[in-house]
Specification:
4-stranded antiparallel beta sheet; alpha+beta; 4 strands; 1 helix; 79 residues
């Protein structure tokens, strides 16, 4: 992981969820791609429960997030 390992490392206005989650958050996760390094590149990706926005967040290095996203998409295609 990178130096961003706490919930406070992610910009508050950077959390996003899928449109399908609806206005009440539903049973979804939120993703934060707003944490940037000095060069302006995405430095770390945050993931949290949409119902527990003050709760803990997971932090992934960008490469780990891309691997997770690719594996999830491929798994959905196979099913």
């Amino acid at each position: 992981m990178t130096g961003h390992n706490t919930h406070d490392s992610f910009p508050v206005d950077g959390w996003r969820s899928a449109n399908r989650c609806g206005p009440d958050g539903g049973n979804c996760v939120e993703v934060n791609l707003a944490a940037r390094d000095a060069a302006g590149e995405i430095d770390v990706v945050g993931i949290r429960d949409s119902k527990r926005t003050a709760g803990p967040a997971l932090a992934f290095p960008v490469a780990g997030w891309r691997s997770f996203r690719t594996a999830t998409i491929m798994d959905n295609i196979r099913h």
